[in-house]
TrEMBL record:
This is Exosporium protein C. It comes from Neobacillus pocheonensis. It comes from the Bacteria.
């Protein structure tokens, strides 16, 4: 069994809006899509898991972009995933991308988690059109479960 330490969630964009796209910059620049702050008490330091889930609606604008999604804890990259996004109007151009990561044995204190996106394909364009959500669930072993 586990015990919930902290749970935080944010939803900067609630729905898709193709009329107000947010350009995804080319690497090494990136856009911060969402941030949350998770607190780990001393008693649970270094014996926990923080489960992170980000969902982002993106749209291909030109070419086939490769979008690199990263999750940072306190400014340090802890996770990355890549998704291809096409812009062919006869095919799909809107995508919902979900990335999940588990950060283990996080130290005591308040930790800032951020999810970012960057386009790593030169000569292509992609944009965030929504929705965007980002959540973090911190859990630790339940001390009452000792045999």
């Amino acid at each position: 069994m586990v015990r919930i330490i902290d749970y935080q969630a944010t939803e900067p964009l609630r729905k898709v809006n193709n009329n107000s796209p947010i350009a995804i910059p080319h690497s090494p620049r990136r856009i911060v899509l969402a941030s949350i702050r998770i607190s780990i008490p001393r008693r649970d330091a270094n014996k926990n898991h923080v489960e992170l889930i980000a969902t982002v609606g993106v749209r291909g604008v030109s070419g086939t972009s490769q979008i690199l999604f990263k999750i940072f804890r306190d400014g340090k990259e802890i996770f990355r995933a890549q998704e291809g996004v096409e812009s062919d109007p006869t095919s799909e151009v809107n995508y919902i991308v979900t990335v999940q990561a588990i950060d283990t044995n996080v130290g005591q204190g308040s930790h800032l988690y951020q999810v970012t996106a960057e386009n790593i394909t030169i000569g292509t364009e992609a944009a965030v059109v929504g929705p965007i959500s980002f959540s973090g669930l911190a859990v630790a072993p339940d001390d009452r479960d000792r045999d």
